[in-house]
Structure prediction request, 544 residues.
Amino acid sequence: MSYAEQMLENHSETMQVDSAALVECIRACFDCAQACTACADACLSEENVQELVRCIRLDLDCADVCETTGRVLSRHAAPEPELIRAVLEACIQACDACGSECETHGRHGMERCQVCAHACRRCQEACNAMLGQLAA
Amino acid sequence: MSYAEQMLENHSETMQVDSAALVECIRACFDCAQACTACADACLSEENVQELVRCIRLDLDCADVCETTGRVLSRHAAPEPELIRAVLEACIQACDACGSECETHGRHGMERCQVCAHACRRCQEACNAMLGQLAA
Amino acid sequence: MSYAEQMLENHSETMQVDSAALVECIRACFDCAQACTACADACLSEENVQELVRCIRLDLDCADVCETTGRVLSRHAAPEPELIRAVLEACIQACDACGSECETHGRHGMERCQVCAHACRRCQEACNAMLGQLAA
Amino acid sequence: MSYAEQMLENHSETMQVDSAALVECIRACFDCAQACTACADACLSEENVQELVRCIRLDLDCADVCETTGRVLSRHAAPEPELIRAVLEACIQACDACGSECETHGRHGMERCQVCAHACRRCQEACNAMLGQLAA
Prediction:
């Protein structure tokens, strides 16, 4: 059982959302922040770094946005729905842009970009699922 | 002249926005992140901390969102308009929620919350101004 | 297999350290940052929040330091040993202080602080293990 | 008067250090985090980006470490001296490494790296001054 799940179980107040979806979204955000940070660093090691500049920039933006989203969702005791919705929407944009770019490089044989794309798509889906629950 | 302004002047590529508005928005984001971090800490020192719990939570959310917004805007060489817009909208939500809460405490004599409210409102306005330029 | 592990496997350059230890340290840092963020939020929900003020502050410091450490370690392609050592030492200090404080509350029946203490101790050990490898 | 200064003046508890030195250190950390973030982005726009890879990596590390240091120092109500010292030492390492690298590029005519080097050196000095006060 992850810390995120244990922390949620022992929290006296929480958001009116499915707790498995919330745990998955928090974990997907932190995992994506890490993958994007590592992807940017690995891209900087490539000989064709000049062709990866957009990928690096989107990695950096996505890492920051995911991290903030993971933090805001970790503070779920007394949620502000409008703020959470806006943060989730920004995260979906960041993951979509970064995921698309990484998929392109992944299709050209860069396996690490493929891993990062997967982290972005998982995070995007988790944020969309949360957004659906908040809208309901 | 601030570093933000000097960095912008020496940047070979940049966003098609008024550079003074961009510098102001970057600075307002970083300043607000600092003010909110300090406000949360100061609130934790108050005897009536229980009444300040919402203020502390909004301070923490606002600090994270402002910092990410300041970073995304500092990477302005090859902007992704949809991502920037979504990030600015999240920042406006965070600053509005935190600014309103801090204003309430400011009216009850907590001068430090008044300072933080000012930082939030300035940041909210700067983000709105940026959003207006991007929409144009 | 975690993203951190997959990212490391597909990285062309890397630190001269045991890769399992590096993956564990990166994951422990991000997990601890999340646990501390959630712990601070949960503490703010407690009736006796006034007695938890030191715990909240250490949670916030520890979350920030762990996150930065996890990011610096995720950029392992061309490591700067002195910088990494200093960052690991700061992380060990943060995890030790926060872990000790959370253990105290854990012993008094706060299960969530016990979970957070575990995350801190795991991160502290992982940072110590990394430090040992860098010194060798 | 900066927000940092106003926040400090209205804080009921604080560190036993010179408040002007504390304000300067907090501001220097946030300013350096911004300058390093912008420097990394500007370096990514350069034709000779391959020669700037070390600069970009140090910019990213320095931005994260400075931001965390600025946040830890902004929470000065109930300081943990050992933790603060370790964080300041990590920040000094990050600013020294990044400042040296940026100075090299600054001497070769990259004015923006010169600005960033200045932000790093100012932050390094401010952290050293704080460290001196804590040791006293």
User: Anything to note?
Assistant: Chain C touches chain D at residues 53-54, 57-58, 60-61, 64-65, 67-68, 71-72, 75, 77-78, 80, 82-83, 86-87, 89-90, 92-94, 97 (CB under 8 Å). The first helix of chain C runs from residue 3 to 9. Helices of chain C lie at 3-9, 19-44, 53-74, 81-107, 111-135.
